[in-house]
Amino acid sequence: CSTFEALSGFVWRARTEALKMKPNQQTKLLFAVNGRSRFVPPLPEGYFGNAILFTHSLCEAGELLKNPLSFAVGLVQKAIDLVSDRYLRSAIDYFETTRARPSLTATLLITTWTRLSFQTTDFGWGQPLCSGPVTLPEKEVALFLSHGGERKNINVLLGLRASAMEEFEALMRQL
Predict the structure, then answer these.
(1) pLDDT (0 to 100) of residue 125
(2) Dihedral of the alpha carbons of 105, 24, 81, 32, in degrees to the nearest 10
(3) What is the number of H-type helices and E-type strands within the chain?
(4) End-to-end CA distance of the chain
(5) pLDDT tens digits for 87-141?
(6) CA of 96: how far to CAs of 9, 35, 50, in Å?
(7) What does residue 3 show for φ and ψ, rounded to 5 degrees?
(8) CB 145 within 8 Å of CB 157
(9) Which whole-number Å values give the CA distances from 126 to 54, 113, 122, 132, 148, in the listed order?
């Protein structure tokens, strides 16, 4: 599995546990998938624009927590595998018709900036020590950011109510 899949599954499970969700409560993981290589025929060479689509994994909190981490990772992988040419075109049609935004109820929205080259940006006074947003837009959002000169470490920024943050941090230290 990829680093994104493993870390997403881990953070989703830890957040679900930290929030003390009821076993029968639905929990959703929402994230973007790059659709550029999934269109048939392929997008034209030099295409400049967005080609991402949100997909999701959904299950009951109890099922997510009673199973090993590999279960959560598998749910992430299945959601990624669903994104085909047909899925992308259907989603585009649906969005153009409804302009609907996904519900964030009981949802963790993960986005990753680990492949963006913030660490190599130099405005004339050297490379940055740290980069990222000042704040997260919603409490349901997690952001993965590269850290360190070789970009091998990942910082996880997570919007979470204060009462659950201590529990989440303890779960993260178990790595």
Answers:
(1) 83
(2) 20
(3) 5, 5
(4) 17
(5) 999 998 998 999 888 778 889 999 888 877 777 777 788 777 777 776 776 778 8
(6) 31, 17, 15
(7) -60, -40
(8) yes
(9) 36, 21, 5, 17, 14
Half-sphere exposure in the Cβ direction for 69 (13 Å, CA): 13
Query: What distance in Å separates the CA atoms of residue 39 and residue 160, rounded to the nearest whole number?
Result: 36
53, two tokens: 């689509």
Q: What is the average per-residue pLDDT within 18-23? A: 95
Identity of residue 137: P
Whether the CA torsion 70, 72, 77, 78 is positive or negative: it is positive
The proportion of the chain whose per-residue pLDDT surpasses 70, expressed as a percent, equals: 94
Q: In what order do the strands lie in the sheet with 141-147?
A: 52-60, 26-34, 107-112, 141-147, 153-158
- Which one has a higher pLDDT value, 137 or 155? 155
